[in-house]
Amino acid sequence: MSSVAWDYIVPVSLPDDLKGVTPGKLDDDLLRAVPGGGKLHWRACDAWCAMVAKAKEDGVELKPTSSGDLYRSYESQKSGFLSRYSLEDTGTGSTKTFEGKTWYLKKGMAMLATPGKSQHNLGLAIDIASASEPKRLNWLIANVKDFGFSWEVVPSEPWHIRLVTGDSPTAAVIAHVSGSEAPSSAPAPKVEEPKAEAPKQAPAASGAVAKRGKENSSTNPVLKLGDKGESVKILQNLLVKWGCPTSTDGDFGQKTEDALKAYQKKVGLQETGIVNAKTWLKIYA
Question: Residues near 54 by Cβ (< 8 Å), separated by ≥ 6?
Answer without folding.
Answer: 143, 146, 147, 172, 176, 181
